Amino acid sequence: MLQTPTTADSPTTTSVCSRSPEALLSFTTTTATSLLPCSRQLIKHHRLPPLGQFIALVFGRCNLPASVCLVSLIYLHRLKLRLPRYARGDYDTPYRLFLAAILTASKFMSEGGTGLTSQMISQITDGLYTAKDVNLMERSFLGLMRYELWIDVDEVKLFLQENGSELEMELREVVMQDGVDWWKEL
């Protein structure tokens, strides 16, 4: 969950709500494929499924919270803005960037070390990428991101304002009153 300031009277937390896993999958696939021009020639990973199928497989096996998926999309959006115009990728670059983004978002948002690990990603992808490959993806991604991982609620609100209808996601504020959670759309 994304933290919002709390008051003494009623503490609040902001939560991300996803109404459609299919919309999230479609948006994530489109985002990953539009980051940079990539080779259409499959060389190394002859076992790679189509990107949408790959993302669906990872989402299905990871069971990631909507907030982690959203933060990974914001990271990919930031990355796209930072890449030079002449940047080009290999066939599997969208796969690698997607994995690095969800791994980074999961770790950043985890509490007590409950985020994904490189070994988990390797297992989730049925060994298409080794833990060593995933570690390299993560380090490269962090370098491209300049280690700027902080995302505040206002940035999330702006991203959802621009993309929320296509993503079918929204923010909800959870207000605790008398020990009961009350949802309020933001």
Automatic annotation (TrEMBL):
CDD domains: CYCLIN_ScPCL1-like
Alphabetically ordered keywords of this record: Membrane, Transmembrane, Transmembrane helix
Domain Cyclin N-terminal, residue spans: 39-149
One Pfam family in the UniProt entry: Cyclin_N
Membrane-spanning parts: 54-76
Presence of keyword Transmembrane helix: yes
A GO molecular-function descriptor: cyclin-dependent protein serine/threonine kinase regulator activity
Keyword Transcription: no
One term under GO cellular component: cyclin-dependent protein kinase holoenzyme complex
PANTHER family reported for this sequence: PHO85 CYCLIN-2-RELATED, PTHR15615
Protein name per UniProt: Cyclin N-terminal domain-containing protein
Lineage start: Eukaryota, Fungi, Fungi incertae sedis, Mucoromycota, Mucoromycotina
